[in-house]
Structure formats: C-alpha cells, structure tokens
C-alpha cells in the first residue's frame, strides 16, 4: 500500500519503489497484529535515519528546512496546491506517530540508543510545532485567503484537534525521558539528553 511519497519518480513517472523510501505507517496493536515483537521494532538509530529522510525529502515540500542543515542554504521547493499540502501533512503526521510508538515500545537503556531516542523525539516535536503554524498560515502566505478551498478549511477542524493532541502526547513522553535523564547515574548521558530541555519545556 505505497503512497506517492514512497516511490522514486523520473519525469513524473514512477520508476520503482525502493526499500529505503518506504516508511512504516501508523498501526494499532491487536490480537493478530502484535507491535511489540523485538525484531520488528526499528531501533533508535534506524528511526533517526527515518526522520532524516522525512526532513530531507518530504518536509522540504512544505518549505521546512532539515534540522541538520543551515537555514541560510535551504532552497524552498515548488508551490503546492492545497490538496497536495494536506496530503504531505497527513503522510508526515501518520509516519511520525508510528515513529513515536516504536520509540515508546523499546526498553529505556542508559546508552547511546537512549540518547538517540530523545534526539529523534525532539526533532519530531519541532516538526509538529512548525507544521501547526504552517497549516494555520499557509493560505495567507500564498495568497489563498478567500478562496474557500484553502488548507485551513481542511486542517482547522478535526485534523488540528488530532495534531494538538498528538503534540501533547509527544511532549509528555519527552518530559518523562528528561526526568529519567536527570535520575541517570551517568553524568554524560544526562548532560547530552538534557541539552535542549529549556527549549521544549517552553512549548
């Protein structure tokens, strides 16, 4: 069940779908769909790669610069229709929810993986904060006000409610992990994991 954002294209035509372009979609645990099988969970390192890919290849479609690059060197992409903007947003929302689930299903180990876990979640929270602003203001930025079919008409109701609820869940998880970092016996682990705590407490 590939989405258009998970296939490689050339001159507008699908060339092939690549393993590295496919991102695990959001799922619920059930009797016949156990999400807690260790070998099926993506590691924090793998999830960091996922976030890198989303930032560098998908979020840039909404003029969101990758968090690993300089904003001064960032070049916005093509102008998108309201429908395309909503499609990109919903794709990112769905895939990032599953990244959050994969992170939460893994044991809290006091090692590099746990530091990466915090770093991944921080970048997702930043993306969610920016995306809410973008979806609320892109119509006025791009001169769509008054059209009646803009992004806000679709996003401003149930989508935004779900978005803010998920942002709250992300921040709640992050605050728990920050607390675990403070209680850690390893000063290096605590200092590294808490390096951006003031920013996220502010959200």
What would you say about this model in short?
The protein has 203 residues and is mainly alpha-helical. It has helices at residues 44-57, 82-104, 112-141, 151-183, 187-193, 197-201; strands at residues 8-10, 13-16. Strands 1-2 form a two-stranded antiparallel ribbon.
Structure keywords:
single chain; 203 residues; mainly alpha; two-stranded antiparallel sheet; 6 helices
Note down, in words, how this protein is organized:
With 203 residues, this protein is mostly helical. The protein is 55% helix and 3% strand. It contains six helices and two strands. Strands 1-2 form a two-stranded antiparallel ribbon. Strand 1 (8-10) and strand 2 (13-16) form a beta hairpin. The longest helix has 33 residues, at 151-183. The chain is globular and about 50 Å long. The chain starts with 7 loop residues before the first strand and ends with a helix. The mean pLDDT is 76.
Topology of helices and strands:
Elements: E1 8-10, E2 13-16, H1 44-57, H2 82-104, H3 112-141, H4 151-183, H5 187-193, H6 197-201
Antiparallel strand pairs: 1-2
Helix pairs in contact: 1-2, 1-3, 2-3, 2-4, 3-4, 4-5
